Amino acid sequence: MKEINFTIEESAKGRLDKVIAENVADLTRSQVQSLIKKGQILVNDVPTTNRYQVKPNDQVIIKLPDPVAIDVQPEKMDLDIVYEDDDVIVVNKPQGMVVHPAPGHDHGTLVNGLLAHTPLATINGELRPGIVHRIDKDTSGLLMVAKNDQALVSLSKQLKDKTNQRKYWAIVHGNIKEDTGTINAPIGRSKKDRKKMAINEEGRPAVTHFKVLERFGEYTLIECQLETGRTHQIRVHLKYIGHPVAGDPLYGPRKTLKGNGQFLHAKLLGFKHPRTGEEMVFEVDPPAIFQATLKKLRAISD
Questions:
Q1: 112 and 27 assigned to the same domain
Q2: Distance CA 104, CA 109 (A)
Q3: Is residue 73 included in any domain, yes or no?
Q4: pTM > 0.70: yes or no
Q5: Is 26 designated active site?
Q6: Cβ count near 17 (within 10 Å)
């Protein structure tokens, strides 16, 4: 069992669960509440409750249980495979599918389906075999996956060197006046909500380029091109400029377009083939609900 020890600072105020969630990376408030309920969080060596109001210099001990091993099993699935050879597989991931297993998602992921279809590269661990990059559960679109270690090294280097292409379509709130633009703002873990990312001067550099494709008055269809690949990058950057992605349950407003989560689609993917060096570019249309929503917006704005 791992222990985390820290001292409550003079400036900290409020409930214990809130303060811990704001100060300990990768622990959500609900996880903290569960640990407190199980007696695995002590204040001054004494178990306490979620409602405890912290005091300066309180000594907090968090006892984290050992992680449960996840056995990644192959699962037969109908995958939308756009391209495949001996080195690379390009998949069109549907909305609602998690890319790789993690606590709480040990089955039904893209990796489970891929393992039933083909062997994958293993050098980046058992939970993420072959995965070069990921997209969020409710984001649809293209992913490149490595079938062997040589391919994984090559594709990962292209991603790091920013030599590959990744373009997304997004329906966003509001009318973006500029035809093109660049958002250059560092992204890190939110200090207020550990489940979220945020613009954070202490975060990692993040750059997103965008181009307006269509305007619908209250909404705009844009194309985003990633220069970097931070967690939730497009969603955080678009919220930052006042145009959050429509349907985004984490960063968008409650009043929004109805769909299956955020209207964000990885439409184009380009890279050099890891063995031949050939330039390869793939493009897929957004899912049906995305296209139907565009049709409605066009009809309303005409």
A1: no
A2: 11
A3: no
A4: yes
A5: no
A6: 24
Residues 234 and 267 in one domain: yes
What lies within 8 Å, CB to CB, of 34 at 6+ separation is none
Domain identity same for 167 and 216? yes
The label of the residue with tokens 């049709």 reads 295
According to the 3-state scheme, what is the secondary structure of the chain?
Answer: CEEEEEECCCCCCCEHHHHHHHHCCCCCHHHHHHHHHCCCEEECCEECCCCCECCCCCEEEEEECCCCCCCCCCCCCCCCEEEECCCEEEEEECCCCCCCCECCECCCCHHHHHHHHCCCCCCCCCCCCCECCCCCCCCEEEEEEECCHHHHHHHHHHHHHCCCEEEEEEEEECCCCCCEEEEECCEEECCCCCCCEEECCCCECCEEEEEEEEECCCEEEEEEEECCCCCCHHHHHHHHCCCCECCCCCCCCCCCCCCCCCCEEEEEEEEECCCCCCEEEEECCCCHHHHHHHHHHHHHHC
Residue in 87, 136, 138, 248 annotated catalytic: 136
Q: What is the CATH number of the domain that holds 159?
A: 3.30.2350.10
Pair 40, 63: CB distance under 8 Å? yes
Q: Which tens digit of pLDDT belongs to each residue from 243-262?
A: 999 999 999 999 999 999 99
Please give the residue range of the domain that contains residue 279.
Answer: 79-299
Question: Which CATH number is 12's domain given?
Answer: 3.10.290.10
Instruction: Tell me: do 58 and 83 sit in the same domain.
Output: no
- Predicted pLDDT at 69: 58
Residues 54 and 17 in one domain: yes
Number of independent structural domains in the chain: 2
Averaged pLDDT score across all residues of the chain:
92
* 26 plus 89 within the same structural domain: no
Distance between start and end Cα atoms, the chain: 62
Q: What is the pLDDT of residues 189-214, one digit of tens each?
A: 887 777 789 998 888 999 999 999 99
